[in-house]
Amino acid sequence: MKQITVTVNGQPHSAEVEPRLLLVHLIRENLNLTGTHIGCDTSSCGACTVLLDGKSVKSCTVLAVQANGKSVSTVEGLCAPGAALNPLQEGFKENHGLHCGFCTPGMMMRATELLEHNPDPTEDEIRWGISGNLCRCTGYNNIVKAILYAGAKMRGEEPASTEPQFV
């Protein structure tokens, strides 16, 4: 067993974990933050994407001990309970960027890093940026629109009015 300390969504947590415990299981089972989804356990789908020291990682391929002393952000940390939605969450809502919702937490976390590094991405840059995250429902068009919307809001601009596409 290994003793680790991880800051998750701004809150420090200490735990004694087996060295083989995956970060996704620490988040979901030890910390009861179930917004991070387990989709494939092979890093193919991206449903488990979180930010580790600000960089998006697929938490099903990171050991919890590798997060020792680091900061983890999950979808639950995008806004405080009862607070207004952050621009990305608002973008997904306004542009129907989710259907079943299974990929949404991972998509939002990947898009968070993308917008942090490029606050004014093109549609092609967004598509490339989220290419490691799979969605089986939306066809990605509304996810791209949601990220464009969030980028505009974060830049202090009025988001372009788009008609959501239902697929």
Q: Can you walk me through this structure?
A:
This is (2Fe-2S)-binding protein. GO terms for molecular function: 2 iron, 2 sulfur cluster binding; metal ion binding; oxidoreductase activity. It comes from Fibrella rubiginis. With 167 residues, the chain is of the alpha+beta class. The protein has 2 domains: 76 residues, Beta-grasp domain (Ubiquitin-like (UB roll), Roll); 68 residues, Orthogonal Bundle (DNA polymerase, domain 1), CATH 1.10.150. Helices cover 31% and strands 15% of the residues. The protein has a 5-stranded mixed beta sheet, sandwiched between helices. A hairpin with a 2-residue loop joins strand 1 and strand 2. It is globular, with a radius of gyration of 16 Å. The protein starts with a strand and ends in a 13-residue tail after the last helix. The model has no long low-confidence stretch (mean pLDDT 94).
Helix content: 25-40%
CATH architecture identity of the largest domain: Roll
Beta-strand segment tally = 5
Number of helices: 5
User: What's the number of structural domains?
Assistant: 2
Kindly report the spatial arrangement of strands forming the biggest sheet.
2-1-5-3-4
Please state the average pLDDT score: 94
CATH topology label of the largest domain: Ubiquitin-like (UB roll)
Shape: globular
Distance between the termini: 48 Å
CATH evolutionary superfamily of the largest domain: Beta-grasp domain
Percentage of residues in DSSP E strands = 5-15%
Low-confidence stretches: none
The helix/strand order is EEHEEEHHHH
C-alpha Rg (nearest Å): 16 Å
Class per helix and strand makeup: alpha+beta
What is the top-level CATH class of the largest domain?
Answer: Alpha Beta
Organism: Fibrella rubiginis
InterPro entries: 2Fe-2S-bd, 2Fe-2S-bd_dom_sf, 2Fe-2S_ferredoxin-like_sf, 2Fe-2S_ferredoxin-type, Beta-grasp_dom_sf, Diverse_Oxidoreductases
Keywords: 2Fe-2S, Iron, Iron-sulfur, Metal-binding, Oxidoreductase
Protein name: (2Fe-2S)-binding protein
